[in-house]
Amino acid sequence: MMINSNLTAERATFVTHLECSMTGERYQADTLHGLSRVGRPLLVRYDLDAVKAAIPKAMIAARATDLWRWRELLPVRHTANIVSLGEIETPLIPIPRSSGSPNVLVKDEGRLPTGSFKARGLVMAVAMAKELGVTRIAMPTNGNAGAALAAYATRCGIETIVFCPDDTPEINVREIQAQGARVYRVNGLIDDCGAIVGRGVAEGRWFDFSTLKEPYRIEGKKTMGLELAVQFGWKLPDAIFYPTGGGTGLIGMWKAFDELEQLGWIGPERPRMYAVQASGCAPIVRAFEAGEEHAERWEDAATVAAGIRVPRAVGDFLILRAVRESGGKALGVGDPAILKAVDDCAKKDGLLLCPEGGATLAAYKEALRSGEVDEDERVVLFNCATGLKYPMPEANAALDRFGEIDLATL
Ligand SMILES: *Cc1c(COP(=O)(O)O)cnc(C)c1O
Hints:
single chain; 6-stranded mixed beta sheet
């Protein structure tokens, strides 16, 4: 049996406190929190000077290359509370033919447990829920978050109730149930599901695991930024294209880069962050273009990319702030371009993307055409889930083995 050496050592956390992302108000660590008093996400703060003194960069580099090598930059206090399903460091895969550039790399998050990068956020949030004594969790989901929650929570005996839009991909609904959650299809969108969760919270029935409504999912997602830094030799790429729903990963990576700079492990250079949305649900793009700090709800949201069909994000201002500070943009792409990108990447480069991953490739191509990015820039696209979870084109060719088969025509 393989034992993960990063999880055998008991290491203390370096968390000092939590902080309101809007007002900066401080909150105590080691107590259960949802949103801040003004209804905004809480961010976890660390004693980075102490981290720096405790672990040289070379020591991190020498550890096994999984998510837990970053243990000192993560919030879990007791290693025993971590429920792991094997959170690997995901590979960077060139897609020269479909992208048209040798410098475009796909960070393939589909290889994580439960087949999506939701595993990063949920493994952390569930470990913290366990540490803080939570016994019942509810969550609204477009599919992958619910699946990751179900897997990790079931593994440590926490009860889960999951609500998803009734047109959520069938495989997602079934995997959530198969992994031990009670899952309900709701005739509405993800924020309508969130409203049901909120009603149960008001009655004290469960703890709310909606995106950014508990502080620790961001910490798990931030490991994408930490991994990129080490994979690029303690530098960062020139541009990152991130499929943006609730924006947890984009916000998390931006936070990771700041922490790495404070540790002295990277310099002040930052990638341009591109928040990619589907043009059928693009509240962040609309707010970005209008110069707004917050994004209004997108009505009648519709796209094949279910993971980014998020009409309203509680962390909207954090996404917009990171995109603007980085010199990036929020970009919308249509469903036909998304599906074409998925098809192109599979046919030309042999890599099957999920539709949300396809959106980043479509946005990159558009940015290349418009001169927003240069062909020789090092670009990372996020493929956030395995393409195997999504519908594929039909394949109906058949042969009658008893009849004549003209092999020359096959
Ligand atoms: C959740 C999800 C996203 C969006 O991620 P956020 O960090 O919440 O913006 C994109 N794609 C897929 C497949 C997802 O499951």
